[in-house]
Amino acid sequence: MTTDTSGLSQLGAQTHQPTDPDSAHLERVPNPHADTLYVARFSAPEFTSLCPVTGQPDFAHLVIDYVPGDWLVESKSLKLYLTSFRNHGAFHEDCTVAIGKRLVALLDPTWLRIGGYWYPRGGIPIDVFWQTGGVPEGVWLPEQGVAGYRGRG
């Protein structure tokens, strides 16, 4: 089965890095297995944003799991969207939940969760978790696989 990519503006093309999340263009492609419940996972172990108060960088390991409906997120556009946060000032909670909500608005998935495992600043790690509801019955959902922060090793 071939997927029609004619409507995509970024895949296979030279693109510029969006300067902020609002100007980033997320794209989607048809799900060739829309009749099957399965989990797709994206991990972004080097996610970066800025503290909105100090302007200092914040770092996180994001894990996005979703059960697609009719649509899949196009991975290059997701990468560009996530990197658009590098110069964006927002709190950890805002970044994590906003990413999840934007993906839900684009994809209308059967289910989605995002885990934001933020590295400590000021001695306190802030981990943020959001999901759209209960996991669909019969879906195999592995743990996100990110170790909790251990400050004393």
Description:
It is a single chain. The strands form 2 sheets. Strands 2-3-5-6 form a 4-stranded antiparallel sheet, covered by helices on one side. It starts with 27 loop residues before the first strand and ends in a 22-residue tail after the last strand. It is built from 2 helices and 6 strands. It is α+β, with helices and mostly antiparallel strands and 153 residues long. It has a single domain (21-131), classed as GTP Cyclohydrolase I, domain 2, CATH 3.30.1130. The protein has helices at residues 75-83, 92-107, and strands at residues 28-30, 40-50, 57-67, 71-73, 111-118, 127-131. Residues 1-28 are annotated as: Disordered. It is an enzyme of class 1 (oxidoreductase). Catalyzes the NADPH-dependent reduction of 7-cyano-7-deazaguanine (preQ0) to 7-aminomethyl-7-deazaguanine (preQ1).
